[in-house]
Write a sequence for this structure.
């Protein structure tokens, strides 16, 4: 792992992601923008279209897709359990503990992970990364909501919330299209492809816009714990579980990268909604995102060497 290899990997793969996100951050600082509305458009239209397009055009076999789903579930459970144990060890109060679990469990596999995998590994690997993203998103809208709303909402209510997630319907529709070997009419196929191509730039700009809303937390112990767990433990857990499940090639590369992402920006919504230390959550997200090239660059070199 030489310095030229690290610099080339950073410049070719991570720098484009950071430049586009940085542009979104700068725009958000200079111009008042309603990021919530943009986020709703991105996650209710563009993201489902991207997922549908990737699954329909992908050559993934069913067993490859299922192994990615299993890997993702194991990563989420392991990272959440690790956060719980570390939070108890450091004697964090309940709201802070739940905030730590959320930021450690759910990585930014959409805004950040998908474009990074596309740049670094290509479209075939992007299909694996998409399944990881969809599985995480479904977990987030059930288990994530349940964790954040402990004492406010039962699991049945959180489960019913799945029916409000368009990405899930995109997956079902893609499965039907593939199972029946349906060929989309050319105008529809081009429409889907055009919208899908615009999703990743939009997600990167949205990431930058979301980071402009950071509130600084003064609890440095919890802040450093949250950032270090996601950036340092994430890659280790990803590599160990990938070896345990026997993942190889692009499947291993894409899944480990997704497991190593900094915290998801969407966790700020749950933290704000249920008063789970929003300043701490946004600070962990900001610091982790800024520092993530320090861990992702050598990880990419290792995975692709």
């Amino acid at each position: 792992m030489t310095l030229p290899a690290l610099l080339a990997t950073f410049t070719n793969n991570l720098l484009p992601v950071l430049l586009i996100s940085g542009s979104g951050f700068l725009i958000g600082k200079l111009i008042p923008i309603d990021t919530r509305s943009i986020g709703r458009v991105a996650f209710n239209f563009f993201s489902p279209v991207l997922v549908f397009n990737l699954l329909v055009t992908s050559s993934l076999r069913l067993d490859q897709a299922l192994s990615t789903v299993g890997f993702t579930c194991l990563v989420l459970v392991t990272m959440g359990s690790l956060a719980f144990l570390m939070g108890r060890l450091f004697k964090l109060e309940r709201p802070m503990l739940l905030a730590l679990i959320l930021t450690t469990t759910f990585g930014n596999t959409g805004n950040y992970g998908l474009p990074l995998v596309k740049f670094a590994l290509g479209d075939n690997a992007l299909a694996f990364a998409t399944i990881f993203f969809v599985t995480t998103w479904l977990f987030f809208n059930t288990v994530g909501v349940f964790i954040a709303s402990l004492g406010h909402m039962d699991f049945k209510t959180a489960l019913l919330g799945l029916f409000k997630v368009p990405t899930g319907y995109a997956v079902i529709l893609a499965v039907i299209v593939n199972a029946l070997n349906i060929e989309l009419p050319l105008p529809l196929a081009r429409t889907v492809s055009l919208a899908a191509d615009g999703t990743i730039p939009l997600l990167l700009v949205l990431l930058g816009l979301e980071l402009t809303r950071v509130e600084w937390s003064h609890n440095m112990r919890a802040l450093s714990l949250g950032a270090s767990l996601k950036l340092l433990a994430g890659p280790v857990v990803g590599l160990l579980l990938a070896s345990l499940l026997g993942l190889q090639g692009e499947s291993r590369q894409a899944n480990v990268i997704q497991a190593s992402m900094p915290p998801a920006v969407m966790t700020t919504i749950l933290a704000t909604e249920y008063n789970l230390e929003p300043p701490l959550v946004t600070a962990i997200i900001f610091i982790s995102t800024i520092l993530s090239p320090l861990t992702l660059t050598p990880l990419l070199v290792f995975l692709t060497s």
Notes: The chain has 13 helices and no strands. The chain has a mean pLDDT of 86. The chain has one domain: 13-304. The radius of gyration is 18 Å.
